Amino acid sequence: MLTKKHLQKNIFDFLFALLIFVLPLSRALPNLIVALLILLFSISFKKELLKNYYKSPFFILNILVLYLFLQALINNTFLQDIGFYKKYFYLIIIPILFLKVKNLQLLKISSIITINLTIIISIFKIINFYYYFKYIPFADGWATNSVLHLERPYAGIFSVICVVLSFEQIILKTKGKLLFIMSFLLSLLFIFFISIRISIITLFILFVVYGVFYLKINWKKKVLFSTVLVLFFTIIFVLNKNLSKRFFLDNNLKKMVETTKKFEPRVVIWDCANTITEQDDFSMLFGTNSYSNIKLSLIKCYSESIADFSRRSWFLQHKFNTHSQFIDLFLIGGLISILLFLLFLIKSLVDNYYNFYTVAIFISFIMILFIENIFHRQFGCFIFTIFTSLFLRKNINLLKDD
Length: 402
Description:
By secondary structure, this protein is an all-alpha fold. About 70% of the residues lie in helices and about 0% in strands. Helix 4 (about 55-75) packs antiparallel against helix 16.
């Protein structure tokens, strides 16, 4: 029973759960809650909390952020690019605040609730859109954002996280199993329904990894499991025409490649990102001098390399960033930056290889990091640090009242 004493004793955990709940619903409230968490953390700070922090993978991530800050200060571009660097603050503070969290299960349940809420909100918006326009634009990656509560890639990673969280609760036989099964199915179906490419590929990888390495059955059954899995995804692609269009599937391989080059923006974006590495002021070891330089170089490349007027205007209007966190880190911080980030990811996976759910969360983020600059957004920094922290911490049950 939730008593006043219980609430006071565990206010930090409840505030963190509230942070997760409001994350997709507000931009201002998460900052306010983080400020309160920092205040509570400071008031009751104990040195023991940070005693072994240097052994954590997040210590490496902190070094990466401090390196980027230091390099920007040396290049005298920190204030110029403060809009980017202020978001990196969450990559440091959220994992540290997590050290004080006692009830990880509370945060997992809060996560499942808020993710399902965003899916339900999106479903209502989709129904409303269809009511007025009599079609659903899921074959178009950019138009789809108008009918989703979150932009498509973020709706995708959120749903994949919910699949992992719900599956964990089902396997652990947590009370309310039926609700977690419904949450698992809702998130799974939503991903296929709105045709989120990277999330579908991620799901396939997660199912394969689980079946091959974590499912305790003999190899014959594993072969059968893999076969059924491939057939399932094949049937989905055959039945879902929007999905086929999203993946540019065509019987003619040459035509499929040409269509991909024509309609996939990242083909142009990544090619333009590559031209930055050929500039005189780019260092393989340290990268370029500022995010402003990257932005201007990309815009210049779009204006000069895209022949079609309407397509060129579209690129210049949106001023697309590199659309890959790995490319972004390499451009801004060179090999030092990308190697530090890879070291963080590798250590996280190696230290937790025995735990499928931790591995699944990191695989999910690695996949979206390939195609999105999630650290350019406050929401992206929040979800990355919250959910990786959630699974890198060993679960500690809520302390009972004395």
